[in-house]
Every structure is written in structure tokens, then in C-alpha cells.
Amino acid sequence: MALDIPVEIKNLIKRDNLTAETERHLRLSFYDDSIDSLYPAETLFPDPELYPANLGESWLVINDDQIVTESLTLEESLCSDDYLRFGACEAAKFEITVADVAEDIKNHWFTAELIIADYKLAFGIYKVDDVVIQKDKRFKKIIAYDRMKEFDTDVSIWYKNLSFPLSMREFRNSFLNYFGFPYDTVTLINDTMTVTQSNTDPTINGRKVIESICEINGVFGSFDRTGTFKYVSLGYGGVYPAEDLFPIERGLYPGESADPEEIPATYKSLDYKEWVVESINRVNLYDADGELTAGFGDGENEYQIRDNFLIYGMGSAELLGIAENLYGNINGRTYLPATLELQALPYIEVGDLLDVEYSKGTIETFVMHRTTKGIQGMADTIESSGDQYQNQTYGIKDEINNIKSNVEKNKNEISGNGEKINRVDEYARQVNTNLGQEVARAKAAEGVNAQAITAETNRATKQEGVLSSRITDTAAKFERELSNLDTGLSTKITQTAEQIRLEASDIKKELQASITVEAGRISSEVSRAKDAEGSLSSRITQTANSITSEVTRAKGAENVLSSRITQTESSITSTVKQVNGLNTKYSEVKQTADKISWIVSSGSSSSNFTLTSRMANLISDKIEVKGYVTFSQVESKLRGSGTTTINGDNITTGRIDIKLLTSGSKPVITSYNGGIAFGNGFSYSNIQGSKVIIGQGGGRISFFGHTPYDRQSVITPTTTTMLLSSVQQLLRVLRNYGLIA
């Protein structure tokens, strides 16, 4: 549970760090001797007068003035797997960058203190695993781990010197005393079980021992901020954001609830799944050969205990009691997988239950993984992952490991008995044959690896339908596939040295999506195989110098419609194409910094248009312009002035230079001897300077028509009266033709 610190300090931590009162200081203290504990006893924690306890004098202290601002990263995990793996014991990782530290600090232990308003908050005990010199050699990046990493060592000497049999409580206390680490004095559910010397391996990994202890008791292992080993149990959750997100087993709600830490809705972000991790409702125990030896519970969401040497060789009655005890400690634990980003709360520990407020109410989730970054602006990212149902996959790799363990165990017992050795080798060969031709015989001592490893698991439930998973591992490729045969949904991950490919499919809806990642390219694609609109697909390809997006629809091989956009640092090109049998239509727009080009093509015809800052160029079989068009001069140095307008069949302009104007094949106006000639090809009239020539050989000008049919006649007068009448007639004719007023 969360560290028990004074309420006033909690309130300071929750406030915005904007004042001297809330300012935070980080101190790293290095010691010569092994560090026992930050406090002499948990009952005295956290009286600052007793801090630190029995550590002696530190030989190096790194304060704020040597710590690079906000360089702290602390990662802690209770269980980082996608499913609940009880017994997980994961080391915390502490990273920070310091300046001007000349001392050799690698492999040295140090304590971390977070100081707020003179209150010293324990921030863990760590051992420096690596020191990375930065480009500016003043700075060093410290990479350190908590005490959990110390368990990664051979403890076979301790194990062989134990006085078997002994109780589980005696066994686990002896293990932690061997390392000299302080631990919680609690009672675990299988503390009374008998532990025998069932492990005959020549080397025994300490982390495997403590994980086996925690797993058989349904707890997790963790070192808290004071350097004390704690057995962490999950409490009961019971708050869900919606009625349809209750656990399937309604009888589990709300259950016996743990005391959660309340998180008000002042956090940065909250993301949660649309389902809860369902309660484990069956526990199965398996022996060294992978055979089921005991089980408790009648559900289908089972938890499997495999490869745990603590239960090897036990009788069925004792195994059933262990399974029943374990069931009671892990059944009913449900929670909502979520990711929460918020201002750091350093007193919270992994395994704590959080009650998170949000717009529609509250949800409860566990701190399964936590990343803390920064000092003054310290922030937490809290995650609780988990599959809706247990998905423990034990395939060929696990069986091979069991075979090797059995062979090694039998060979040690045989001690040179040739006949029994032959029987053991025959047993190993027989098991490999049963595993199939997928696995070549592997002997690690000879450095020969299996060519391919394939593991496949199937499960059927009423709620889920038929589920299957498959893992294929070869020297050239790793492949993992999960599928639900009832829903038609499946996902697949394929990894080679050249690329990683992720795929998701919906067979019933004929949908598929994929992402491919290579060293120089990332591409994603979504497709739909069939529909009333035909097959559809979209694709995005990204390289270091271009991004291309494509969308395609196809109705058969002869009717395809597609669009494509390609973007580089210097151009953008968009293309739309339609193929309908032998007829192909195509358009493209390409834009650069100094030019835009259009191309439209259909069948055997095409149009091109190019536009620059100095020129517009249009090429087409036919050009139609609708509207009022005005042409104006660009620069004053060009000849002419004014504008020309075209509006339908009307043209208004200024000066016109003409060399030849024809009507059909006959000239109407042409230049002639420095003048203008008007004619129809056979005879013409022209104006040359002050001369007006009518007809090819001279001619005449007639106001009243050239032929007798359209010419007006005036009688020749013979008398004064006739003369007066003729003049009046002439004046009337001239007035009718508009020649006089």
C-alpha cells in the first residue's frame, strides 16, 4: 500500500510546484558498506530524526547542484506482462544525469531521498549498474537498479545446505536472510506447505526461487522505497465506468474492496479499455512433465502453475490444498486496464489500488507499471495492462526446457550408469518425436539451436468463441498470430531482420489492415475485399524524403479508379486515374516552388497547362472561354496601349495591324503598295495615299447602285419646270439614302 506519510506532506506534493515551500530536492548518498535499510524498523517510519539508520558516513553525496535538471527517470513494475503473472518480481530502474562527479561509482550502492519542506521522503536504494559518459565529459548518466537485480545469481550452495524438509515460511525467510535483505514478516496463504529438495539442477537462479515462492502464494515481489522486500497482494476492485463493463461473473461485484488512493480529476489524461480483466475462476497445477496434477475451481478462465519446482513430487491431496489456497488469493481480482498521466505522487507504490475520478464517475485500477520523470516538474505515467482473459501460452520451448531439465536431473542421479543413460536419451528422443518435425534436436552444450519452434494454443468458451494462437520462431523469422474463429477477427505480427509487419483482419467483413516498418520506409494499408462499390484500398508510404498516399477502388480488372498524392521536400504531385476497359482517363497536378503544371488526358486527346511567374502555356485540341474577357498590356515598353475585350460575338479593341483578312479563301482586306486593298479576288479597290482606285482598271463610285435594277434614274430636263422637278427628285433621293438632312 502507499507509503504512510503525514497528510500535510501529501497535500504539499499534490500542489503545483510554484513556491519555495513545494520546491523539491533530490539527494543521492553513496556508502562504503552494504546498506541495511533506510529505517531501523517499520514502526518507527518515517520519523526524520531516525533517518537514515545505521548507514555510517556516506563517502559521496550528490545534491541538486550536481544533478541535471529534470533528468530523473524511475521505472517500476509489479507485472509488465499482458496477462496477470502472479509471482513476478521485477527490478526498478533508476536513471539520472549528474555533473562533475570524478569518483568511480559503478557497482556502488546509494540511497535516494526526495526532500520537500525539510521532510525526507525515502526514494529507494539502488546499485549503480552502468555509468555512461556524455558528449560533454562533465556529465555522466547513472543507470542503477534496486535490490531485485541481486537475485540474478546462482544460489545452489544455499539451497543444497538447507535441512529439508521445511515449511514454506522457513524456506522463504531463509532465502531472504541469505541475501541479508530486510523483509515483511507476513503470513502467506501456503506458508504451511512442505518444501522438499525437489530441485536437482546444478545451478539455481535466485530470481527463479523468489518468483516460485511468490507465485505459489498468489502474490508479487517488490522492494519498496525503504529497501524492504514486500509480498504484494492485489485487493478487490469494484468500480467500473459503465454497467456493461461489470465482470462477467456478477457475483464478484463489488466484493471486499481494498482501500484505494483517491485520484481527483485534475490529472493530465486518462485512457481506459472498454472491458475489464475478468476474474480467474480456476487454478491448475502441472508437474515437471507438464501433466496436470491438481486443480480447483469450475470456471474456464484458468490460471496455470507450471515449471514451479516447489510442487514437484507432492501428493495429490497436498497439491489440491495448495490449489484451493491459491484460488482464494487470486479469485475475484478484476480491474479496468488504464493509462493515467498525472502530477507525480511519490508516496504511491506499485500494486496500489487507485480510485480515479472522471466525467462520468470513478474507475478503479491498479498500479501495475509506473514511470516517474523529472524533479521540479515530476510527473507519473501509471499503467495497468492485462488481457480480458488469461492467455498463458506454454508451447514447445517450455516442453523442451522441461525435457532438458529432466534429462539433466536423471543424468545426475544415474552417475555413470550406462543402461539408465540410454533410457534417458531414448526418452528425450521419444518426446522430441511427439513434438513433431517442427523442432530439430537441440543440445545447448554443443551450440546447436533448433531450426524452428512453433507453439499453438486453442481455447473455446461460450463468451469468446473459439480462440487460437500460434507462434513460429526460426532463425530467419518470428511470427505470432491470434485469431477468433467465431468472429473472424485475427491479428498477426511478423518480424524478420529486414522488417516488422503488423496485420489485423476481419474475415467476415473482408477487411484487412497492415503496417510494415523497414529501415528506410514505413507503409500502412487498409483494404476491403468486396462491397457494392467494389474492392477498396488505401495505402500510405513514408520514407525519409517522401510521403505517398493512395486510394483505389476496383470493380473487376477492367474498371479501376485510383488517386495518388506524393509529397517531397520540393514538390507535391496529385494524380487521379480511371481505367474502364480500353478507355483510360487521367489527370495530374504537380506543384513546385516556381511552377504549377496540369495534365488532363482521355483516350487519344490531352490538354496541358503550365503556369509560372512569367508565363501561362495552354495546349489543347479545343479551348472554350465563357465570360467577359479583357486583355491588357503588361509593361509600358511594349507596343500599343489600352485593352481589348471579348464578350460573346463583340470585340472592342484599339489599334489592329492587318496584313491579310479573308472570307473563306477570298481576300477581303490586304496590304497593297503601301496602302489598303479591298477586293473579292477578281476585282478590288484600294487606297494609296491621296488616291482612291476603284476596280482593277479604274471604275466608278455609285451612290444609287451600279446596275439598272438598283440605280435611281433622273430624267433629263428640257424645260425650266422639268429642271425644277428633277432637282427636287434628286434632293429627295439623297435624303432617302441619308446623304443629306
Give a written overview of the molecule:
With 741 residues, this protein is mainly β. Helices cover 14% and strands 37% of the residues. The protein has 8 helices and 44 strands. The protein has a 15-stranded antiparallel beta sheet with strand order 22-23-24-25-26-27-28-29-30-31-32-33-34-35-36, with no helix packed on it. Helix 6 packs antiparallel against helix 7. The longest helix has 19 residues, at 396-414. The radius of gyration is 46 Å and the shape is elongated. The chain starts with 6 loop residues before the first helix and ends in a 5-residue tail after the last helix. The model is unreliable at 37-54, 238-257, 395-400, 411-416, 436-452 and 460-464 (pLDDT under 50).
Indicate the percent of residues in helices.
10-25%
Segments where pLDDT lies below 50 for 5+ residues?
37-54, 238-257, 395-400, 411-416, 436-452, 460-464
Shape summary: elongated
Strand content: 35-45%
From the alpha carbons, calculate the radius of gyration and give it in angstroms: 46 Å
The beta-strand count equals 44
Q: Strand order, biggest sheet? A: 22-23-24-25-26-27-28-29-30-31-32-33-34-35-36
**Oligomer classification:** single chain
